[in-house]
Amino acid sequence: MAVTILILSFMLFLMSFLPSFRITHWSVKIFDYIRIQVLFVQLIVLIVSLFFFSEQSTLKYLSQFFLLISISYQLFIILPYVPLKFRFKETEADNYETIGHEVSVLSANVLQKNNDYHKLIDLIRRVDPDILLTTESNKSWEEALGVIEKDFSSNYKIALENRYGMHFYTKLKSIEIKEHYLLSEQSPSIEAHLIDKNNNNFVFWGVHPPPPSPTEKTTSRYNDAELMKLAKLIRKDGFPSIVTGDFNDVCWSRSSKLFAKVSKLRDVRIGRGILGTFPVKPVIFRFPIDLIFSSKEIQVNTIKILSDIGSDHLPIFSKFDLASSSYSTTEKLDSNLKKEINQIIKEGHNAVQDD
């Protein structure tokens, strides 16, 4: 039994640490997605080894060593997202006087084959967002959402049948709304330059890069490259930015943290909760892949998960204040970091060509 526990402990050890390296294959990346679930398994195995087996042996102690190291590392990654009161200290955005009005955003992966259109429409009417982003929305969804168009002053529609369609609606004044194909013609992103009621400018990005999975892309090279290209665009921009959508990546992953670092944005989940959005059922397997990042000039006041709309994702809702229209981007990228980013983008383009 001690040998079995040792083997299991070592496997759990690998599941904890391997995703933190630049290994892009889905078979490794999956353990980044399910860190919380793996953590529970590690705790159970540790308890079993402590209380249910009385024999004292080197193998038993070695297995406990692997488990304690693994659990400590998992907690190190996950705890920053736990909503403890002491985490809500003054941030850079709190140093600004919030001169804008509160803007609300609803982002929902609708699941293309889902035809419970009324559930999302009812939700939209209930929360009354200033900005609405849908992903996986095709022509059928576009037609169904026609009933809410009169409630929004501007919209931008990209109806696709490949599960990467995207629709954007806003009640705010828009300067420009355009689509980008950052890596391939299969997965668009939407960039919207908007103005709030106090004439403060900001940029909204809606994204949906492809996931690493055995049924789609075998590696995360597509996802990583698309996010790095977006991060570089945001860094060059002269306005505060907020980015949301189905990232197909968890908030604590190496690539998500690199995205935040390069773009100079903040993950708004930190200190506010893990807020898992996928899959809807079973709840125990849920993890956070519908993400929100914002500039330091944008103060996020609310972030929460909303009710089931018949999709495999839960919608995510947020409210924020624009604290300033200015955004400094004078800081240059470190040469080593720049080299790493360019390599990731190159690998992504190579992956597109290999398909």
Brief write-up:
By secondary structure, the protein is an alpha+beta fold. The protein is 35% helix and 21% strand.
Structural class: alpha+beta
So how many helices?
A: 9
The portion of residues forming beta strands comes to 15-25%
- The number of E-state strands comes to 12
| Shape call | globular
Helix content: 25-40%
Which blocks of ≥5 consecutive residues have pLDDT under 50? 86-100
Topology order in helix (H) and strand (E) letters: HHHHEHEHEEEEEHEHEEEEH
Average pLDDT level: 91
Biggest sheet strand order reads: 3-4-2-1-12-11
Give the radius of gyration.
21 Å
N-to-C CA distance: 46 Å
Sketch the major β-sheet.
6 strands, mixed
Question: Care to describe what's here?
Answer:
With 355 residues, this protein is of the alpha+beta class. Helices cover 35% and strands 21% of the residues. The protein has helices spanning 2-17, 26-33, 35-51, 58-78, 117-127, 139-144, 221-236, 254-263, 335-354; strands at 102-109, 131-135, 154-158, 166-170, 173-180, 189-195, 201-207, 241-246, 266-267, 290-294, 298-305, 316-322. The strands form 2 sheets. Strands 3-4-2-1-12-11 form a 6-stranded mixed β-sheet, covered by helices on one side. A 6-stranded mixed β-sheet has the order 5-6-7-8-10-9, covered by helices on one side. Helix 3 packs antiparallel against helix 4 (58-78), helix 7 (221-236) runs parallel beside helix 8 (254-263) and helix 7 (221-236) crosses helix 9. It is globular and about 70 Å long. The protein starts with a helix and ends with a helix.
List the helices and strands and how they pair.
Elements: H1 2-17, H2 26-33, H3 35-51, H4 58-78, E1 102-109, H5 117-127, E2 131-135, H6 139-144, E3 154-158, E4 166-170, E5 173-180, E6 189-195, E7 201-207, H7 221-236, E8 241-246, H8 254-263, E9 266-267, E10 290-294, E11 298-305, E12 316-322, H9 335-354
Parallel strand pairs: 1-2, 7-8
Antiparallel strand pairs: 1-12, 2-4, 3-4, 5-6, 6-7, 8-10, 9-10, 11-12
Helix pairs in contact: 1-3, 1-4, 3-4, 7-8, 7-9
